[in-house]
Design a protein that fits this description.
Layout (H helix, E strand, L loop, with lengths): L2 H8 L17 H12 L2 E2 L11 H12 L12 H15 L9 E4 L2 H12 L5 E6 L5 H7 L3 E6 L1 E3 L2 E3 L2 H7 L4 E7 L11 H11 L5 E5 L19 H4 L2 E6 H4 L8 E4 L2 H14 L5 H10 L4 H4 L1 H16 L5 E2 L7 E5 L8 H12 L1 E2 L1 E2 L12 E5 L4 H11 L3
Parallel strand pairs: 1-13, 3-4, 3-7, 7-8, 8-9
Antiparallel strand pairs: 2-10, 5-6, 9-10, 11-12, 12-15, 14-15
Helix pairs in contact: 2-15, 3-12, 4-12, 5-6, 5-11, 14-16
Length: about 400
């Protein structure tokens, strides 16, 4: 670089760049995890396991690498994996997706969500978001030029519930998409048959699409079934369904999932997918295709996590926290108002600093912080980790 070019580079005014996401800063997950590390706290904030996956899955991926399966796979995902996904969905939910035209392997669920939104939402389109909501939803809508329309869940001693009358009232001629999440992060609630019926009533006779975030599909407890939109033909015909291998197989760092949708929707999905990620890690796909031939790991997951949930809830019941229902996911929400009158973010920081246990304020899952006196713990941890956290919380 010559002197003139160097001077020109240094004279650029980067403040003139207009942010596509002006309201996005450091996430609460990053803040709380950093604080937990600094204070030596038990991190029950960020939602990932602290235990290992099945060694057989690692062996299957390593075997694929050693067999030389390390070059680009098909853009849509290897056929073997799409076929086993289709078989799984059909065996559990009774709906057969065509693996050739209706299933795409993604670089995690978040990429699947973004791609689903980008492929169907245009500038000015409205997207209904039910809060509290996973933090990638609104940025995805904004990047597409869409307008998020917010409906807040109602919370009581019975837990969180979607007010479907308010969702219906939020629909306008510009509504393009409704985003639903069950089992629900952060609340641990799950949609039941009545919820599915209400959603069906709202979209019937319209061109409204549905994005169903089902990454915790195999974590539903107490004998209830997961009401995937795949079970319901009327909804399946207009829905993107998002799932996550990372959540199911305890490998969140692998960043691999999939999206299923009717062929016409998947055709548009793949147009965007090929240009924002193109394709996904080849040996991991082959490893998963081999490992998934045995359904036991995901069929046994509800019992695995329900035992951890019950261990954690039993311990929390000895504190002054009021436990909200945890019907699904690996999250437990608690009302702390008998302990403190601090705002949620401040209480979470106090809990981390003074009690040595990190949690996430539920207010962080709203577009504008909404105080309910509730924080979220993650119980996808080793028993020893949960017991240490409970020992530290025992005085509350």
């Amino acid at each position: 670089m010559n002197m003139a070019t160097d001077n020109a580079a240094h004279s650029m005014d980067f403040s003139r760049i207009t942010s596509r996401l002006p309201d996005v800063g450091t996430t609460i997950f990053t803040v709380m995890s950093a604080l937990a590390t600094e204070k030596g706290a038990v991190n029950l904030g960020q939602g990932f396991p602290d235990f290992h996956c099945d060694p057989a899955l690692v062996d299957a991926v390593a075997d694929a690498m050693r067999r030389g399966l390390n070059q680009y796979p098909p853009m849509t995902g290897i056929p073997q994996l799409r076929e086993v996904i289709a078989d799984k969905v059909e065996s559990i939910y009774g709906h057969r997706y065509d693996p050739a035209t209706e299933i795409t392997v993604t670089a995690g669920a978040t990429q699947g969500i973004l791609t689903s939104v980008l492929c169907c939402v245009h500038p000015g389109d409205e997207v209904i978001v039910i809060e509290p909501a996973y933090d990638s939803y609104v940025p995805a809508i904004q990047l597409a030029g869409g307008v998020p329309v917010f409906v807040q869940m109602e919370v009581s001693d019975a837990g969180y519930a979607v007010p479907w009358d308010k969702v219906a009232a939020a629909v306008t001629p510009r509504t393009r998409l409704i985003m639903v999440n069950s089992p629900h992060n952060p609340t641990g609630s799950v949609l039941r048959g009545a919820d599915i019926a209400a959603l069906s009533d709202i979209v019937r006779g319209t061109d409204i699409l549905v994005l169903s975030d089902e990454v915790y599909e195999h974590m539903v407890y107490d004998g209830h079934r997961h009401e995937s939109v795949c079970r319901h033909p009327e909804l399946a015909a207009r829905s993107f369904v998002v799932s996550s291998f990372g959540k199911t197989y305890h490998v969140t760092g692998w960043k691999i999932g999939y999206v299923a949708a009717p062929a016409a929707l998947m055709h548009e999905f793949r147009k965007v997918h090929q240009f924002n990620v193109f394709t996904v890690n080849t040996p991991v796909q082959h490893g998963l295709a081999a490992f998934m031939k045995d359904p036991a790991p995901y069929l046994e997951l509800p019992a695995f996590y329900q035992r951890k949930r019950d261990l954690f809830r039993d311990g929390l019941s000895q504190t002054r926290f009021k436990l909200l229902p945890s019907d699904g996911t690996y999250f437990q929400c608690v009302d702390y108002r008998a302990v403190s009158d601090l705002p949620e973010a401040e209480f979470a920081k106090w809990l981390t600093t003074e009690m040595g246990v990190a949690a996430i304020p539920v207010s962080a899952f709203y577009h504008q912080p909404r105080e309910s006196g509730i924080v979220r713990f993650c119980f996808a941890k080793q028993d020893a980790t949960l017991k240490l956290a409970l020992e530290r919380l025992a005085t509350l």
